[in-house]
Amino acid sequence: MAKTKQSTDKQARAQALREKDVAGLREEIVSLQKAHFGLRMQAATQQLSNNNVLRQTRRDIARAKTILNQKLAAEQAAKAN
């Protein structure tokens, strides 16, 4: 049951990202990168109790970058036609 909840959370986050435009995605990536940096600093100073948050944030950044690249590729393909 836990895996089902995780997969729906991932799908919900991906869907929310897909609804954003290119500028919104870029802002989201910057925001996630800042959050990830803060989490890394907490981990380095032994203040972070849940290290899985680092992995989640890193994957959220990758997810946002992937969707951004898909949107940019779709825009270029539309311009080419």
Automatic annotation (TrEMBL):
Belongs to the universal ribosomal protein uL29 family. It comes from Lampropedia cohaerens. The gene is rpmC. The keyword ATP-binding does not apply. GO terms for molecular function: structural constituent of ribosome. GO terms for cellular component: ribonucleoprotein complex; ribosome. Pfam families: Ribosomal_L29. It comes from the Bacteria. The keyword NAD does not apply. Keywords: Ribonucleoprotein, Ribosomal protein. GO terms for biological process: translation. InterPro entries: Ribosomal_uL29 (IPR001854), Ribosomal_uL29_CS (IPR018254), Ribosomal_uL29_sf (IPR036049). This is Large ribosomal subunit protein uL29.
